Amino acid sequence: MNKHESTSSYGPLVGAVDEGTSSARFLVFAANTAEVLTYHQVPISHICPKEGWVEQDPMEILRAVRECLRQTVFNLKQLDIDPSDIVAIGIANQRETTVVWDSFTGEPLYNAIVWMDMRTTSIIDDILKKIRNKNKDYLKSLCGLPISPYFSALKLKWLLKNVPRVREALKKKRCMFGTIDTWLIWNLTGGPNYGIHATDVTNASRTMLMNITTLEWDPTLLSFFKIPPEILPEIRSSSEIYGYIQDEVLSGVPISGCLGDQQAALVGQMCLHRGQAKSTYGTGCFLLYNTGSAIINSSHGLLTTVAYQLGPQVRPVYALEGSVAVAGAVIEWLKDNLGLISDVKECETLAAQIPTDNRITFVPAFSGLYAPYWRKDARSVICGITEDTNSAHIIKAALQAVCFQTRDILETMKEETGFVLSKLLVDGSMTNNNLLMQMQADICGIPVVRPLMCETTALGAAIAAGSADGIRKWDMKMDGAVPSDTFLTSISENERDKLYSQWKMGIERSLGWEPEIVVTDNTNGMHKATALGIFVIGTIIVLLVARYRYTS
Question: What is the pTM assigned to this prediction?
């Protein structure tokens, strides 16, 4: 019997690692039906050594993924499903997060610097001083991206400059760099024992080091950031056999798919034609618009990125992307920092108590604003507070902020492409909030379509893995009607525009809080105005919470 033939009643199975900012998961799909058979999830902690710094332990990430593999295999056995029916595995991962490690020992040389980390602000300021008009888009024609702390090249540059262990490993030719996909692939395929050092085009397109046209590491970009090419992984397509798992669990199973998590969600939502778009709501919010084979260079703050390349001989598909740094993160902030809710599910119940025309505007720019503004000097503001304001108003304003930021991106995409979406496909953990989805439809004025099968990110990785040459167990024609919930707009255009105008006023008030360098590579200093602003807002909120709890 062929090693890829199955005796299971479910047919061949495809696994998908979904390694996100807050957790790692491993899911198993039936390739013939796209049904999820079982999964396991492990949370991943954050390390915040300084203001604006966000790190994770690469070994904790790797251990979490391995635990997910082991437990999911155990689950399959409990269901009387043979794990040997897994014919391929795909990987979807948090993007831009940067890891460097020792090629001999496999040990990380520093914690992973997470995509939302802002420590490279001073490096960017130095770079922009040398560019005419401090043009953030100076490199966009090559890589499709603005010069921003968001992307991997700046994080890698910081590591090379500030971490002695990294410089020493580089000197000894033992330093390896990768995003999370590369770290996982290298370790799962052998690590120091001939592990595969590779990435795919979607993750490479988020580093600022890959040429968006040639899909190769670009010499001009490498020279600009002073990045040695020998530490970089090989760039491959999103759907091909990278190598074979060498761990005890699932040993010999090919890793044959790899996509950044947002691109994986685009594939999982079957947005495979130009003009289709999806929005994923997780820690951040990311809206991708399929532009087909066309590379559209945005002049309004959107990113040009590779959507996917389903095979080494297949033409790449591109996308415009609007990236929002803070979506689900603001709800976690309300829970963990302010104690306004004890569980994220509470926010829907409390916010539902407040009328549609909430007069409070909350701009959650904790570390600046991403698309379409790209203002690292922005900071969070809460506007419109009166003596009647309570915690439910703040919670509803936080949810509305997610919707307003999505509308910002949709408005910009309309300017860039001239195309108006007839509906918005959504996925991600926050879409379980029905109130949020209704507000999104109201604020954008178009139907919001939520698939009942919410595992679209993992599904995209499974599709890439299962359809690769040498596997070919996934039916790419499985594109019939997807069971979905649809949320229709319930307010007038006048109400919608009034709310959006209020949001724009809030945006204006959030800008200019960090006019100078406030966090250097060696201090934890803050600009006095920002410290005062945070203190005042924090004091007001604490007083309001106390009043609300007292009166209730």
Answer: 0.82
